[in-house]
Specification:
- This protein is an alpha+beta fold.
- The chain has three domains: 15-70, no CATH class; 76-188; 201-301.
- Helices cover 40% and strands 23% of the residues.
- The protein has helices at residues 3-32, 35-43, 49-73, 150-157, 173-200, 273-287, 296-301; strands at residues 76-82, 93-99, 102-103, 106-107, 111-123, 130-142, 225-230, 236-241, 245-251, 257-264.
- Helix 4 runs antiparallel to helix 5 (173-200).
């Protein structure tokens, strides 16, 4: 075989190797996404380096799959808008963010965030040089619910220079979009969890129980529950019972119960031994199980108070 033929064959083999290497990540993700492969790795008791590497790949792949599912069902899309106002900021150029959330089998009304670029003078954090004018993004308008802390997220990820003109941190639009989407999804998940509590308790409609102090209007649900209400951000939930007990619980953004207080709204003898025992028992049931908001009514009905 001639030298030219050998060189040609080596070049061909190198091309094949590069092609196979490019397919390796796809093969990893495909194999690790198979339930049978994942189950086998979890069951395996082997401590070999290859199995350890496979488990590490599996952990990363599962996290990636979860992230992709969130992006698929609760997407955020960027688009450009031209403001027709001749006096608009930045010649009317606007960057829009569209957040869509599924509601049952359909998508609900999307939320929009509009950002504009503003020119500011200041000192660059990295270069340490005075920059005459820089274009930085700021939130112009939005339709996000008031309970979602968009201003706090903007201060963190789209920070503008302080009084000294120096940037606290570099702006990160991608991080802002991810954090905003997560906050909106968490808010709707908490609203859905509170509504599920009302359904589980036999209370109909989102406004049920808002006149809980009016005895004529209170309708008894399961377990003696007459009202389940939440604050605007759906972080704090009050469960009111016909007996006068009120369980107030606070959940975090993920739906886990962080704090519970049980008090009496109607009973004047709130400090007697029986009342204290009932409050302790109700608190134990609310915080029992997996400690999540979704199962609160089921845990209460396991030994109903009311």
């Amino acid at each position: 075989m001639s030298i030219e033929a050998l060189r040609s064959e080596i070049t061909s083999l190198e091309s094949q190797l590069k092609a196979l290497e490019s397919l390796l990540p796809h093969a990893h993700s495909t194999l690790l996404s198979l339930p049978s492969i994942a189950a086998a790795l979890k069951r395996s008791t082997s401590t070999s380096p290859s199995i350890a590497r496979a488990r590490a790949h599996l952990t990363r792949q599962l996290a990636h799959n979860t992230h992709m599912n969130y992006r698929l069902t609760s997407g955020i899309t960027a688009f450009r808008v031209q403001d027709p106002d001749p006096y608009a900021v930045d010649s009317g150029r606007v960057l829009g963010l569209r957040i869509e959330l599924p509601q049952g089998a359909t998508f609900g009304t999307p939320y929009f965030v509009f950002l504009v670029a503003v020119r500011v003078a200041g000192q660059g954090e990295e270069e340490g040089e005075q920059q005459s004018r820089r274009r930085l993004l700021k939130v112009h308008k939005h339709t996000v619910p008031p309970a979602v802390p968009i201003d706090a997220l903007a201060r963190r990820w789209l920070a503008l220079p302080g009084k000294t003109g120096k940037m606290v941190r570099k702006q990160d639009l991608h991080a802002f979009g991810r954090a905003l989407r997560h906050a909106v999804v968490s808010f709707h998940a908490r609203l859905a969890a509170v509504e599920k509590l009302r359904v589980d308790a036999g209370l109909e409609g989102k406004g049920e129980g808002r006149d809980a102090e009016d005895g004529e209007k209170r309708r008894k649900g399961k377990g003696g529950i007459v009202a389940i209400t939440a604050d605007e951000a759906a972080h704090t939930v009050d469960i009111t019972f016909k007996s006068g007990l009120v369980g107030r619980l606070r959940m975090n953004r993920a739906g886990a119960i962080e704090h519970v207080v049980v008090k009496r709204a109607l009973d004047a003898n709130a400090d007697d031994e029986t009342a204290q025992r009932k409050r302790r028992e109700l608190k134990r049931r609310i915080t029992g199980g997996d400690g999540r908001i979704e199962g609160v009514v089921d845990r209460i009905l396991g030994n109903s108070e009311g």
